[in-house]
Amino acid sequence: MTSPYSAILRKLLHSVDGAVAVGFADYDGESVQIEGNLDPDTHRLHLAYQGIVLHHLQSVHHVLGETPTRISSRHQNLHIIIQALKSGYFLVLTLKPNSNLHKASQYLEQTAQELNQDL
Asked: Is the Cβ–Cβ distance between 107 and 89 less than 8 Å?
């Protein structure tokens, strides 16, 4: 699946040591573009579920007058960072557990800024 966003996502994927996959999806969790080493069907499902996590946390925090813009979660064999974008879109960066999260977040923020210019 190639789109105008392929180069941007591949740049992120190759800039972050330990990055396994990155995906870009719309509000409904529909994949716009995926890159990386996950099986495509698994990756699309992964994106959809991360979108559910993002939207639930956004709705819970809306009551507090806050909106999460980035969510990190640690799993047994992966680390996942969800980055909210404009118009309900979002990015999901999936990493090996010992990745440099600070550096990954910096590159993710740069990518988010690039994508938000097009949204």
From this structure: no
Q: Kindly write down the DSSP assignment for every residue of 3-44, as one continuous string.
A: -TTHHHHHHHHHHSTTEEEEEEE-TT--EEEEEESS-HHHHH
Question: In this structure, is residue 40 part of a structural domain?
Answer: yes
Other beta carbons less than 10 A from residue 65's beta carbon: 6
Q: Would you say residue 2 has pLDDT above 70?
A: no
Residue 92 falls inside a structural domain: yes
Q: Is residue 28, in this structure, part of any structural domain at all?
A: yes
What average pLDDT does range 103-116 have in this prediction? 96
CATH of the domain at 27: 3.30.450.30
24 burial via Cβ count (<10 Å: 0-12, 13-18, 19+): buried
Please tell me the total count of domains within the chain. Answer: 1
Inside any domain, residue 1: no
pTM: 0.92
